[in-house]
From TrEMBL:
One of its GO terms (biological process) is methylation. SUPFAM superfamilies: S-adenosyl-L-methionine-dependent methyltransferases (SSF53335). This is Class I SAM-dependent methyltransferase. GO terms for molecular function: S-adenosylmethionine-dependent methyltransferase activity. InterPro entries: Methyltransf_11, SAM-dependent_MTases_sf. It comes from Anaerobaca lacustris. The keyword Transferase applies.
Length: 242
């Protein structure tokens, strides 16, 4: 087949995948909530795991750009909190060298099973699946260079206490990255009442003793912010760029 014909075929396949995923998401959205209650806690509905793994996500999540923005050393240790089916876990694992490590943390049994299956099927030898608790990521103290939250920070009930546990698992110089849907974003995703503004996230992290480092604006649906512990409570010197 001519190269242009192959490219056209790939584009058509991608468009079909996008339409299929979006259509299924919209169809389920009428009868199944995107967030459910498990043991009294709000968590992502695993019925939508297919959407998180669809090719459609690459277009708005821009995972490679996210990883490049984080400027991770090849031997970094990263915790993917609320890893779900492992969308970012696998990309983090492949982005790092064998000397690096990814802790894939989740609290739902179905997600733990999906993560273990992915690790086995894809040969991700530098990934360790961790069963977290709703109030604790269950990570070794001083173990992580980065703690990564993609669309999960909002689901944590007692965020100040959880952030204190996150602080304990960070190495010196460690960082926290948070991706969350913007409140005004109309695209499919979490309920609008659950969405957090970038300003609220900064305020909460500062109140928990973290310092805002930087924000990236290339994600069409989400805010993307990075923090580090300041060790001295609230620090109002670091603000979002105007």
């Amino acid at each position: 087949m001519h190269p242009e014909g192959r490219r056209t075929k790939r584009r058509r396949h991608h468009c079909r995948q996008v339409l299929l995923a979006t259509g299924l998401f919209a169809a389920l959205g009428g009868c199944a909530p995107t967030v459910i209650d498990v043991e009294g806690h709000r968590v992502f509905n695993p019925a939508y795991l297919f959407y998180l793994e669809s090719e459609a996500r690459d277009g708005w999540q821009k995972p490679q750009e996210v990883l490049e923005a984080l400027r991770l050393p090849a031997d970094a240790v990263v915790a993917d909190i609320g890893a779900g089916g492992g969308y970012f876990t696998e990309r983090l694992a492949r982005h790092l060298s064998e000397g690096g490590r990814v802790y894939a943390v989740d609290v739902q049994e179905v997600m733990i099973d999906a993560l273990r299956q992915r690790v086995s099927d894809r040969g991700l030898s530098n990934v360790e699946v961790v069963r977290g608790r709703f109030d604790d990521p269950n990570l070794p103290e001083g173990s992580c260079d980065l703690v990564f939250f993609s669309s999960v920070y909002k689901e944590i009930d007692n965020r100040p206490a959880y952030l204190e546990r996150v602080r304990r698992c960070l190495r010196p110089g460690g960082r926290v990255a948070i991706l969350e849907y913007r409140p005004g974003e109309l695209a499919p995703g979490p309920p609008r009442w659950m969405r957090l503004s970038a300003e609220q996230i900064v305020e909460e992290l500062e109140d928990a003793g973290f310092e805002f480092i930087e924000a990236f604006e290339f994600l069409p649906r989400q805010s993307f912010q990075v923090f580090r512990p300041n060790g001295a409570g609230r620090d109002t010197s670091a603000r979002l760029p105007s």
